[in-house]
Amino acid sequence: MSVISVLLAAIAPGVALLAYFYLKDRYETEPIHLVGKMFLFGILLVFPVMVLQRAFVHGFGDDPFVFSFLISSGVEEFLKWFLIYFLVFRHGKFDEPYDGIVYSVAVSLGFATLENVFYAFLNSASISTLLLRAFLPVSGHAMFGVMMGYHLGKAKFNPKQRNRQLIYSLILPIFWHGVFDYVLLSAKTYWIWIMLPLMAFLWGRSLWNVNRANAKSPLRVLRRDEQVEM
């Protein structure tokens, strides 16, 4: 299999999922250059994550529970959250709840895409293996991004619940990412029977979050008023 084929197979799932969630914005899609910038920041985030995770493994060992919930999900989701909160949470283009989902998914899938490229070349992965990874870790990162972005959107547009929603936007992705990793590390022979319902739940919940975020858009009311005036 050629280098180009492997590279395209590793990159395609992340780009396709980002396009899917980008186009789910019903009322006002975000600037492509800003979404692309967040995707790029997600790619660059892989390098400090690798350094920190290596340091934590030396300090805490490789116990599956500690690795799953602290070293893997804790480090990755916190740095994604930190990046989104300080770069786009107060940005003027973040003007409806669904925007939190778009930007969080962009960062998450940028991270997942480079991670997938590294895996493909370091493990000489086949196309079938990359397809499995598209269903599991790549789409998993997208689901964690949806969770994070949904609650960031609620935090921005519901000041009374801001602190609580900010906590949810960090804790929930860490928890579900940790569950995801722990299943893969611990259930060596029967992981698929746990992973299938887990992914079905995460996808179902994510689509519900997408619909709820769109339904809360202030632009929805503006569009409705414009139609009435016409």
UniProtKB/TrEMBL annotation:
Native source organism of the sequence: Paenibacillus agricola
Name of the featured protein: Protease PrsW
Homology family: Belongs to the protease PrsW family.
Bilayer topology: Multi-pass membrane protein
NCBIfam families in alphabetical order: intramemb_PrsW
Gene name of the record: prsW
Regions crossing the membrane: 6-23, 35-53, 65-88, 100-122, 134-153, 165-184, 190-208
InterPro entries in the record: Peptidase_PrsW_arch/bac, PrsW
Name of the top EC class for this enzyme: hydrolase
Function: Involved in the degradation of specific anti-sigma factors.
Subcellular location: Cell membrane
Keywords: Cell membrane, Hydrolase, Membrane, Metalloprotease, Protease, Transmembrane, Transmembrane helix
Gene Ontology MF term list: metallopeptidase activity
EC numbers on record: 3.4.-.-
PANTHER family, per database record: PROTEASE PRSW
Keyword Membrane attached: yes
